[in-house]
Amino acid sequence: MASEGMEAAGAARTIRRTRAPDRTREEILDAAVAEFSAKGLAGARVDEIAARTRTTKRMIYYYFGGKEQLYAAVLERLYGGIRGAEAALDLDHLPALEALRRMIELTFDHHAAHPEFVHLVATENINEARIVRASPTIRARNATVIDRLRALIARGEQEGSFRPGLDALDLHMLINGFCFYRVSNRHTLRAIYGRDTLAAGSAAAQRRMITEAVLRYVAAG
Q1: Are 142 and 133 in contact (CB under 8 A)?
Q2: Which CATH number is 31's domain given?
Q3: Which of 21, 39, 100, 101 has the greatest number of beta carbons closer than 10 A?
Q4: Tens digits of per-residue pLDDT, 26-35?
């Protein structure tokens, strides 16, 4: 019995040692998302990221290697978030139009709930996608949405609900363009036109608008 208790205690210590680095890494990423989304890659400081966590600048470098590697890990995590949410929808059992509706609504909701993702993607475009181009992980994760849309288009054509000739990347850009713009340009739109695109009333109407627009675009006939 004593030996069993010692083995259990040893196993518990092993689990704690395994989980502690994982928790530390996630805490660093949480802080890095806030810092990079507020200040971009150039303006963000690793010292500030360390100050937001229970760790040190040296420990951040130990886990990630450097500031750019940490920034790449942040982008990988954020892209993985939306791609994982899409995968969790489990759309294969739905008619193609309904499956597409849910993808549009998820994209709209995800962008609205994660402005830090929008900010960082916008910054990466200003920097000509230097970090994204160097990350096989980001490219691989984002290939899944095009594969998913391509399969959905093929299914919709077979069902007779989608018109022929749709392109998966074009459809992806159509959906994301509006969902992204209303978040990325929220402040200029409010300053110029006096409307907050993320206010509840505006958001509900815009969610219906982009969903109906895309479904009408793809519909057969």
Answers
A1: no
A2: 1.10.10.60
A3: 100
A4: 999 999 999 9
